[in-house]
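Quiz preparation item.
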């Protein structure tokens, strides 16, 4: 059995060849902070991330190739991350219905331990590969990947034109703007508490189970254009990498388009953009198997996004991001071959944050999901079910953070960073209703979640 299915032989083969070619020069791939010689505040709002500054976006679009660090530390290719948390919901899970390894409520967890190989490989190539141990599922998996096998700048009509390619395993993980989903707010959240269903495919439906290649251009540090396609890994690859098919497998290639325009002036930055993705999907039977029997489901996502940042001199930092995605669904396979079974889902995410001296932060956000009822697909079920078949959810988030390190004069800079945070999520509607949404007496507010976390990178 082949590691990669035939339909991704070209992309997958290039990806493997690229990794093998890079292996002998791994010592030239340092972690980002030591590589650039810059403190975490240069690339990240709040001195920790993943929210990027204009400098951070340029570093990412430039293929993670910028240098500036000195000494041995600039030649160390590895970094690591540990995330631990305490989780409490207003009402616990019913006995026996809680996630494996955990109690019905009031759970402490080591959410994840990650190892990164990240940084510059040559003047024209760089990237990162993240592998993760999940303390929730008690398993290892290949996490986020964003490899830039080629990037270069050219002069075009008197302005800089950056051209590049990215090979990645999650649509939007390569995106430089924090309004999109892979690196959008909330940057961490409880993996133990119930989560709403019915999100568009772009919101993580292909995370870690697909592979894609896109080409991008960045003109005059303002106009960003990207186009490419994704397809699924084979079931053999998915099982070996410790991931799963999520909503299902892509039997062919799914086109992806991205456009954005950015302005930077007087310590401020703003952007507007749009996204598009269309995919035929064989629904997942299990974590690593799918079927095309009865036809395929088709998802078409169209999104618009915008963002604003006031950076000033770093004393006061204000950010605001928003993204809206409209998804149309033709659920032929999920509905048992019922051709014409269509529905639509809309998703809105808004966030604003304030940071004082990149040390003390306060963020508030809203996430909304609404759409048509699909009672043949979504049925009554304890906690995760939808008694009326609708995806409608309203979630309000507030988070307070403290990042004591990450500055140029911090202890052990740039080797250690720490974010301590407390987050609260309140639901006024969950999976279609405010009261008895699952058909078993559970209310939306029962899923209100207190999440206290410690997030360390080193």
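Solution:
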């Amino acid at each position: 059995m082949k590691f990669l299915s035939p339909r991704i032989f070209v992309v997958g083969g290039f990806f493997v060849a690229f990794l093998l070619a890079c292996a002998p020069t791994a010592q030239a791939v340092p972690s980002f902070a030591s590589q650039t010689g810059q403190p975490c505040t240069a690339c990240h709002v709040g001195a920790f991330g993943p929210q990027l500054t204009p400098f951070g976006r340029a570093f990412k679009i430039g293929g993670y190739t910028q240098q500036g660090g000195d000494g041995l530390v600039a030649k160390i290719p590895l970094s690591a991350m540990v995330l631990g948390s305490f989780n409490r919901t207003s009402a616990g899970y019913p006995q026996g219905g809680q996630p494996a390894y955990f109690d019905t409520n009031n759970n402490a967890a080591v959410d994840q331990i990650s190892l990164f190989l990240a940084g510059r490989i040559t003047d024209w190539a760089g990237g990162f590969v993240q592998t993760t141990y999940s303390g929730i599922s008690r398993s290892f998996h290949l996490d986020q990947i964003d490899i830039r096998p080629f990037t270069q700048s050219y002069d075009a009509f008197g302005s800089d034109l950056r051209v590049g390619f990215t090979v990645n395993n999650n649509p939007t993980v390569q995106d430089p703007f924090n309004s999109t989903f892979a690196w959008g707010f909330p940057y961490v959240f409880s993996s133990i508490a119930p989560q709403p269903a019915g999100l568009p495919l772009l919101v993580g439906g292909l995370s870690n189970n697909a592979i894609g290649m896109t080409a991008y251009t960045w003109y005059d540090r303002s106009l960003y254009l990207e186009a490419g396609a994704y397809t699924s890994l084979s079931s053999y690859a998915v099982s070996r990498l410790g991931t799963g098919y999520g909503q299902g497998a892509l039997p062919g290639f799914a086109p992806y388009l991205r456009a954005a325009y950015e302005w930077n002036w007087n310590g401020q930055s703003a952007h507007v953009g749009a996204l598009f993705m269309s995919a035929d999907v064989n629904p997942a039977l299990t974590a690593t198997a799918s079927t095309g029997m009865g036809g395929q489901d088709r998802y078409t996502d169209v999104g618009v996004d915008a963002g604003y940042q006031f950076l000033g001199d770093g004393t006061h930092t204000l950010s605001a991001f928003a993204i809206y995605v409209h998804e149309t669904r033709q659920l032929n396979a999920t509905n048992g071959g019922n051709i014409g079974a269509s529905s639509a889902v809309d998703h809105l995410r808004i966030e604003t944050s304030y940071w004082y001296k990149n040390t003390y932060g306060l963020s508030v956000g809203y996430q909304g999901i609404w759409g048509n009822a699909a009672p043949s697909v979504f049925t009554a079920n304890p906690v995760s079910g939808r008694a009326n078949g609708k995806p409608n959810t309203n979630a309000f988030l507030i988070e307070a953070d403290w990042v004591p390190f990450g500055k140029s004069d911090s202890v052990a800079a740039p080797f250690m960073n720490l974010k301590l945070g407390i987050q609260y999520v309140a639901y006024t509607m969950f999976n279609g209703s405010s009261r008895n949404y699952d058909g078993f007496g559970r209310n939306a507010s029962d899923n209100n979640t207190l999440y206290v976390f410690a997030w360390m990178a080193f």
